[in-house]
Amino acid sequence: MKEKNVEPQKDPLFKESLHTCLLQITGYSSLYMSVEDLRKQVFSSENGGHEAMILKLWDLLMPNVKLESRLTKQWGDIGFQGDDPKTDFRGMGMLGLVNLLFFSENYPKEAQHVLSHANHPKLGYSYAIVGINLTEMAYSLLKSGALKAHFYNTVKGAPELQHFHQLYCYLAYEFDKFWLLEEPESIMQFNQYREKFHNVVKTHLQEPDVSLTLTLSSKNERK
Questions:
Q1: Suppose 146 and one of 141, 165, 181, 204 were both cysteines; which one would form an S-S bond, judging by CB atoms 3.0 to 4.6 Å apart?
Q2: Which residues form the ELMO domain (predicted)?
């Protein structure tokens, strides 16, 4: 302000606005580092916290069905590939699990609604695997800098991990609507439609006033 001869008396809002902008700019880099740290965390069956999270995910998505054992084919009912979900988190690490759990904790009805679509006999897809794939999409967009306008428009100050998780919720909910609308002939066409959805998102992100926000009221917002 001194360098540019900005006088606080004439423009009293400038200092506060500049401070907010600088927080947003530096905060984006800090957010990426936090997301990257979480992605590098490997799911461990020996970690009680990790185990509690995966079991909680089951309870939230399947509240009326008891998990028969920790290693079971039941995991396929929520979209994991094998008897043990930990093998599916290799690419995105704990970031993939935290996103899935955040969606179910904050939007339980919506998450169960999306899961019901994922289990559709004709248009179904692997809920958890697609969720981890969408986490990779969100991660790549963050890493490339494509999410700057979104966070600048939606967060007054430095964005935090919860804001990244909120973006994931938007992607998970919107992809489900997109998938059902497109009516793919087979899950084998997933990559094709995933890329199409990715392009839709990237187009939105080029809009100056972009805000990729799930408009439903979350559990936290209802409190």
A1: 141
A2: 49-205
